[in-house]
């Protein structure tokens, strides 16, 4: 009667679900990109970049924004500006994208991996505190998927020990914690605009900060030593500070224009994704064996990058795994349902750092639970209407009924 599509039954979605294009494409942006092209001023510190940095920082209640090539260079420059270098330790969550762990390595510092919380999957403040040594210089909490790290506790612990906080906001554009924008809660915020992110220009990144000195140092780091706003051929604003190793990590005016236009949709999009997420949470949690990732504990605006759910392996029939659930849900026509990175950062096959160059400070209890249980619903679902969400829930319900003991 209700045979799974993967076994030859009729799928819940008669045709595999398709979505509006992601990232969104605005015709008026296309016109502006043509103007930039015709202006022949394509690189740094054009009018779109200046406006984007100012508006993006202000939206996230930060004073300054520095636009860069990607969200890995932003983490590296944030650490470098805070004086992190050889011999220092930087605490990062075990469950994150490669970049968070690699940024300290690029500077000769040691990433130290600490476990996450059971409900939000973000860095556990207790695991962070337990990982601190006299060499700890910085901590990088990540606002992961559709949640936020506990910034109250993490900042309090960091303050007590004199450790700098860098927020990795690669999944959290538009998020607010107690009314303050993500990226404004620690010393520096790091954003990515890579193709898959909430805001994207294909590639790109941005650092936020309230500190004028950090702003100046980060600007110099990304622009081969020039002071903020200074271009080639202009007075450089004096040389960079002695020993500061500066780079070309600039981004282009085209990217800034794409992002500036997206920024004007950020608030309404963030609100609709959050409303859809709450609707999905209620409906999916009614299915036995399914739980959802908790939103940020003090989030006044939770920005959802994806929607995280977990499947309890105990409830599944013998021989059935999370991967089987995903395959069966996909076969019902629910595309954009996937399994995440599969392992903690330092066990992924892209992690190519020799063991003496990093440290694992806590048993990865929660991180391993995430690896074995998490299923992610792509951002497109959170931009869909309720009738589509209802069919997604129906697909999960059908699969879980068949695959539960
Ligand atoms: C995407 C991402 C980054 C930065 O990535 P880039 O691809 O370099 O822009 C950093 N941290 C996390 C958690 C990410 O997902």
Largest sheet: 8 strands, mixed
Bin the strand percentage: 5-15%
DSSP, total strands: 15
Contiguous runs where pLDDT drops below 50 for at least 5 residues = none
Bound molecules: pyridoxal-5'-phosphate
CA(first)-CA(last) distance: 19 Å
Written description of the protein model:
It is globular, with a radius of gyration of 22 Å. It starts with 26 loop residues before the first helix and ends with a helix. The chain is built from twelve helices and 15 strands. The chain is 36% helix and 14% strand. The protein is of the alpha/beta class. The longest helix is centred in the middle third of the chain and has 33 residues, at 253-285. Bound molecules: pyridoxal-5'-phosphate (PLP). Pyridoxal-5'-phosphate binds at residues 70-72, 96-97, 99-100, 142, 168, 170-171, 192, 194, 205.
List keywords for this structure.
405 residues, alpha/beta, four-stranded antiparallel sheet, 14% strand, binds pyridoxal-5'-phosphate
């Amino acid at each position: 009667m209700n045979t799974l599509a993967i076994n030859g039954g009729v799928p819940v979605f008669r045709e595999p679900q398709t979505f509006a294009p992601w990232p969104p494409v605005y015709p008026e942006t296309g016109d502006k990109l043509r103007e930039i092209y015709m202006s022949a001023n394509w690189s740094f510190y054009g009018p779109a970049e200046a406006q984007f940095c100012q508006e993006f920082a202000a939206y996230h209640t930060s004073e300054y924004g520095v636009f860069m090539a990607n969200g890995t260079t932003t983490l590296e420059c944030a650490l470098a500006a805070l004086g992190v270098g050889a011999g220092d330790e930087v605490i990062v969550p075990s469950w994150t994208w490669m970049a968070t762990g690699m940024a300290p390595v690029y500077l000769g510092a040691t990433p130290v991996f600490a476990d996450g919380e059971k409900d939000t999957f973000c860095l556990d403040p207790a695991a962070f505190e337990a990982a601190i040594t006299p060499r700890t210089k910085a901590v990088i909490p990540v606002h992961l998927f559709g949640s936020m790290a506990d910034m109250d506790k993490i900042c309090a612990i960091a303050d007590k020990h004199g450790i700098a906080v860098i927020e990795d906001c690669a999944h959290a554009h538009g998020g607010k914690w107690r009314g303050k924008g993500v990226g404004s809660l620690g010393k520096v915020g790091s954003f990515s605009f890579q193709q898959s992110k909430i805001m994207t220009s294909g590639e790109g990144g941005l650092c936020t900060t309230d500190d004028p000195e950090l702003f100046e140092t980060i600007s110099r780091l990304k622009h081969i030593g020039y002071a903020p706003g200074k271009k080639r051929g202009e007075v450089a604003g004096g040389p960079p500070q002695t020993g500061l190793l500066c780079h070309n990590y600039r981004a282009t005016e085209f990217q800034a224009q794409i992002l500036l236009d997206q920024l004007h949709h950020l608030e309404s999009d963030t609100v609709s994704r959050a409303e859809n997420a709450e609707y999905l949470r209620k409906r999916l949690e009614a299915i036995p064996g399914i739980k959802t990732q908790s939103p940020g504990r003090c989030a006044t605006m939770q920005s959802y990058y994806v929607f995280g759910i977990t499947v309890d392996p105990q409830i599944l029939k013998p021989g059935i795994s999370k991967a089987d659930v995903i395959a069966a849900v996909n076969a019902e026509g629910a595309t954009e349902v996937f399994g995440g990175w599969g392992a903690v950062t330092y066990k992924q096959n892209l992690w190519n750092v020799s063991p003496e160059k990093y440290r694992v400070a806590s048993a990865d209890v929660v991180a391993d639970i995430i690896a074995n249980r998490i299923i992610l619903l792509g951002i497109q679902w959170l931009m869909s209407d309720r009738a589509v969400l209802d069919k997604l829930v129906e697909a999960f319900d059908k699969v879980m009924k068949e695959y539960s003991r």
